[in-house]
Amino acid sequence: MILQILKSIILLCSVSGLAAYIGWEYTSKSFIEIFLFATVLQLVFFYFYNSLISYFTRLKLERENLETIQLINTNNVILECSSCKKTNSVRVDLSGSNEFTCTHCGTDNILNIEFKTITKTNIL
To answer: How many other CB atoms are there within 10 angstroms of residue 20's CB atom?
Structure first.
C-alpha cells in the first residue's frame, strides 16, 4: 500500500516536472508556478475521475444486487396445463401475477398460488 502511494507521488511529480520544464522553456512563467499548477490540475482531474469510477461501480453493483434479488424471487415449477393436462416448466415469480402459455396446446393459463396452514401432528 505504501509502495503504491510512493509510486503515485513519484509519477505525479514526474509529470508535473516534465510539464513545468516544457512550460518554463516556452513561457515567461517560473518553473515552480508551472509545477504547482500542473500538480493541482492533476489532483483535481484524478479526484473527479475517481469519483466517476466510484459512482459507476456503485451503480453496477446495485444493478447486480437487484438482478440477484429478482432471481431469488423466481422459481421453476412443473405444472399441468388446465386444458390438456400436459406438464410445463413454468417460471414463478412470487412478487407478481403469473401467467404461462402451454407449450403443447398453446392455451393461456393463470397460476393461482394458495397458501394453507395445517397443524403438525406428533406420532404417539
So the answer is: 22
